[in-house]
């Protein structure tokens, strides 16, 4: 029998807490008024309404309610005194998990109700709003003795899904699998997953057997949600933090802001650690593309680095307020095997069945917040993301219009030999490898300018990067990423690469000028095709233009040995030049 689990997470501390707590209270009340859970859970000491929404033990269940299913046995208390699985009907439990309030609800379907109907009922229950929450997650459970394949998409509600989600399978132990359906936007408030496996495994994974402790998947989603919540707030902080580079800025204000960022860093580091522990408890591992668990971990590591850098930069400004060197660093996080969304629009449009949890809001507008002052008691939990204002993503490193910029083009070997599905998969694999290489430079895909072709992509790097370091990370990072992803697919991805340096000019169809022409000619050259044909095991062959080589290799590079480059003439169409061939060892 299919079922649907909801987990909603609200902060208990900080300026956002009152509104978030109010929304959780409305959602809890709707579990009774809308979903009919107006009975106490048999055998449980928990009452329907909590006596204290904030106090009590730091980790504890504080309320529970249910609507028994027609003709189904109510869940019995387990031998160890735990909450036990829902035996039918609907059930909800409210927990305090340290500084977060967690509402969990399970809806069990029947002959006349499936995921579509249950999803609509949750939409109705969440009509009071969830935009102040840390986040929500909906888990669609499909009991199956053969969990290797996801359920039919037609059985699921109509909502936006991540392209290629079927390829990014997660295994939970030996008997359950999961897939994340929702678009993996960096600011996402709502996550949707589908899990399959034996009923007992799904219950232990998503609902648990004890009252007080969160089940493994809910614990994981709670900490992943905190990381995304902090990112939304930190993104909104960029405008205000940037204003602090002005000469004569008040030292106390800088100290307060640095302390606030340091507090956020502590929360992020703790959540990243707990996220890894929860993933281990769920025995989760990727089994396909860049799975959501790996994506969350990388995002968490990136966010902690950004918060650490920003806090350190503010402290440096505080020590030298008369002549600050630069604004604190900004940035956008590493993408998975898909473009990170820079549009701060809602993650999912409302469906005809009702407003979706997470579809009402956008990232915050820091201009609407008061800057902290010395002695502020706001703590590390910042103000709630504003549900009506939008803020742009942090601007990428400056790229003057006429500055010289390094760029590269990659092209896949054997792309046209694939069918439509194979070409779609190859595009995702190319994008994954490129984002991995950019990550080695501490860049995200959204930090760059891009021009995409079906079988490849041209990437224009920011103007203020360290060229020798960037080329070294590009070459070695691409080679490492190709080797890593080779083990996940029957056919290895093999790339031709061309890299150059010059001016880049926007044009009607993307970008123009001799530099982008040059990288495309290098990629199409006979030299690269010949070396790849001669060695079927070779995954990458790159040509570095004679314009880029002197700035990155010829004058010395600790990460690149000039002896590894071979001078190579390139002649294709009207292009004739010298380039430098590199292949990984």
Automatic annotation (TrEMBL):
Domain CASPASE and TPR Repeat-Associated N-terminal: 4-71, 88-209
Short name of any one Pfam family annotated for the protein: CATRA-C
Region feature (Disordered): 319-400
UniProt feature, compositional bias: Low complexity: 348-362, 371-381
Segments forming a coiled coil: none
Biased composition, class Pro residues, residue ranges: 326-337
CASPASE and TPR Repeat-Associated C-terminal domain ranges (all copies): 215-246
InterPro entries from the UniProt entry: CATRA-C, CATRA-N
Entry protein name: Guanylate cyclase domain-containing protein
Organism: Catenuloplanes indicus
